[in-house]
Amino acid sequence: MSKIIDGKEYAQILNTNLKNSIEQLKAKRKPKLIIIQIGNNLASNKYIKNKLKACQKVGIIGELKKFDENISEKNLKKEIEKINKDLLVDGLIVQLPLPSHIDEKEITNFISPLKDVDGFNALTLGNIMLNNSKIYPATPLGILKLLEWKNIDLSGKNVVIIGRSNIVGKPLTNMLINKSATVTTCNTKTKKIEEVCKKADILISAAGAANLVTKKFVNKNMIVIDVGANFLNGKYSGDVKFDEVSKIVKYITPVPGGVGPMTIACLLQNTFILYKEKENIS
């Protein structure tokens, strides 16, 4: 069995440190994060519950604002604008996915960059590309922190990412390039994808396809990061065929308990960073 990179363990360390940092400030007010949810997506319910629970543990005020799935884009923007202007709110998340009648890009860009804890605003993403951002999307940031935790130097490493989403693939590609890694980003049109992946030092799968990555994709010196969050036969699973791949590779993240807890930990870190910026705390 290869070495497991335990995201749950490291997320707990980060959350404990954050809790201590918030307590030491002894500030007049605590950091505050608002989550907007549209409709009643079951997966979203689970993610939101975990985020709010984590907020409570570290001393961040977490609040859920839930709206009917038929809310118009115009009315949703009005609600976001109220929060953008609220001086007592430090972070805002609009939980994705949104109903089909609402434009995701339009909404993510409507969130003030000063409260954009998800790091999805176009201005934030532009600054990430230029390596000039204080905030980074939580999942890519969590991945980098896990690799850092295991003392894995990214400079000169051959990294292959499966997936090119605006949430993981694209920002992560830029963040890795800024760490001097050599990055190949694959997608559904990539030819001979197994061969491309097999040459990697680090393989990151964010495709959202259960059991996509098999032993044909990996080598014995590889580090595998599984970002997949899929439901297969009623069971939560990643993109990687864990039982098969874990016997071969050097390091691997499990699902659950790998990247997921790190994503939440990094969201809380982002909230604290934006809080300190607003309060002029160094």
TrEMBL record:
The keyword Hydrolase applies. SUPFAM superfamilies: Aminoacid dehydrogenase-like, N-terminal domain, NAD(P)-binding Rossmann-fold domains. CDD domains: NAD_bind_m-THF_DH_Cyclohyd (cd01080). Its EC number is 1.5.1.5, 3.5.4.9. GO terms for molecular function: methenyltetrahydrofolate cyclohydrolase activity; methylenetetrahydrofolate dehydrogenase (NADP+) activity. InterPro entries: Aminoacid_DH-like_N_sf, NAD(P)-bd_dom_sf, THF_DH/CycHdrlase, THF_DH/CycHdrlase_cat_dom, THF_DH/CycHdrlase_CS, THF_DH/CycHdrlase_NAD-bd_dom. Gene3D superfamilies: Leucine Dehydrogenase, chain A, domain 1 (3.40.50.10860), NAD(P)-binding Rossmann-like Domain (3.40.50.720). NADP(+) binds at residues 163-165, 229. This is Bifunctional protein FolD. The gene is folD.
